[in-house]
């Protein structure tokens, strides 16, 4: 009695393969979705909304240009330096009536740096005059000021619209960056960890090796090796801001080490993404 032919075996093989694939699919863990670095795709219906390099959105009051299109408004307003001096003319400590510490404004600055960055364009200089008798700017005639970077497709027949160089979401862009180049530089690419400067007092932010620009001017970004590098270029503006950046990097690496211990099969990329998601829960 002859056995089954080749066609029978092929049919059996097909049935087995379909069954195996179906079972594997049924038992596979759900695909993990992670945020993009540049903010694209955060809004499913409008993938480019809030992405790095997009326009800032104005409130209901609209713009207030002198000519309604692009010229500076507020010609009759006081000098910005006079306003600053009056506002900060504090001679004695003023304590919060509701128990807030200085941490609240430091956190506010950190959060602000996760949402927006519009630098000066460097092409329209409008120096601010220094008033006579200024206690800080002695023998300095003016403070350098440049108008903000704007979308060149606006400002001619429609009101000038400014650009946001970072993501508009609370997504940790101030820790992880808003573009692939900076995000990659901040990583060790080993075990999902972020770069740090190891010291006897604990891990600090990584120092600049000259590859990553920090806040400076459009013509001359600051590449000083004496400065730290973080996801946002303004991390070195003041000590408590740098401290919060440092805490978030430490938290990320703590989470990365924990995830790596508990999941021996995970590679660097997935450990990094999971640690990023875990550490961001504390800011959201």
Q: Care to describe what's here?
A:
The strands form 3 sheets. The protein has a two-stranded antiparallel ribbon with strand order 1-6. It has a domain at 173-280. It has helices at 6-27, 80-87, 103-115, 173-176, 180-186, 239-262, 268-280; strands at residues 54-55, 120-125, 128-129, 142-143, 146-148, 163-164. The termini are far apart. With 284 residues, the chain is mainly α.
How many helices in DSSP terms?
7
Q: How many beta strands in the DSSP annotation?
A: 6
Question: Which percent band covers the strand fraction?
Answer: 5-15%
Main sheet specs: 2 strands, antiparallel
Write down the Rg: 27 Å
| Distance from first to last alpha carbon | 73 Å
Mean pLDDT: 88
Low-confidence stretches are: 15-32
Q: Structural class, from secondary structure content?
A: mainly alpha
- How is the largest sheet built, in terms of strand order? 1-6
Q: What is the 3D form?
A: globular
Helix fraction?
Answer: 25-40%
Features:
about 280 residues; mainly alpha; two-stranded antiparallel sheet; two-stranded antiparallel ribbon; 7 helices; about 30% helix
Short summary of the structure?
The chain has helices at 6-27, 80-87, 103-115, 173-176, 180-186, 239-262, 268-280; strands spanning 54-55, 120-125, 128-129, 142-143, 146-148, 163-164. With 284 residues, the protein is mainly alpha-helical. It has a domain at 173-280.
Topology:
Elements: H1 6-27, E1 54-55, H2 80-87, H3 103-115, E2 120-125, E3 128-129, E4 142-143, E5 146-148, E6 163-164, H4 173-176, H5 180-186, H6 239-262, H7 268-280
Antiparallel strand pairs: 1-6, 2-5, 3-4
Helix pairs in contact: 3-6, 6-7
């Amino acid at each position: 009695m002859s056995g089954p032919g080749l066609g029978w075996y092929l049919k059996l093989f097909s049935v087995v393969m379909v069954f195996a694939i179906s079972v594997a699919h049924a038992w596979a863990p759900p695909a993990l979705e992670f945020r993009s670095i540049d903010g694209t795709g955060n809004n499913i219906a409008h993938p480019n909304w809030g992405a790095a390099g997009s326009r800032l959105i104005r409130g209901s009051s609209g713009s207030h240009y002198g000519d309604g299109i692009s010229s500076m408004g507020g010609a009759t307003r006081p000098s910005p330096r006079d306003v600053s001096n009056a506002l900060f003319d504090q001679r004695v400590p003023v304590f919060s009536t509701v128990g807030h510490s200085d941490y609240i404004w430091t956190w506010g600055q950190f959060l602000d740096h996760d949402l927006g960055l519009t630098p000066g364009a460097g092409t329209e200089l409008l120096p601010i005059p220094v008033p006579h008798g200024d206690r800080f700017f002695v023998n300095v005639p003016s403070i350098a000021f440049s108008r903000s970077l704007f979308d060149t497709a606006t400002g001619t027949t429609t009101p000038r619209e400014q650009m946001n160089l970072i993501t508009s979401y609370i997504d940790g862009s101030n820790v992880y960056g808003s573009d692939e180049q900076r995000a990659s530089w901040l990583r060790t690419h080993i075990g999902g960890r972020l770069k740090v400067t190891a010291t006897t007092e604990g891990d600090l932010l990584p120092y600049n090796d000259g590859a990553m620009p920090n806040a400076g001017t459009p013509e001359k970004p600051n590449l000083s090796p004496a400065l730290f590098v973080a996801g946002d270029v303004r991390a070195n503006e003041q000590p408590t801001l740098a401290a919060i950046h440092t805490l978030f990097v430490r938290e990320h690496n703590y989470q990365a080490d924990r995830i790596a211990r508990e999941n021996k099969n995970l590679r660097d990329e997935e450990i990094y993404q999971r640690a990023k998601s875990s550490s961001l829960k504390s800011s959201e």
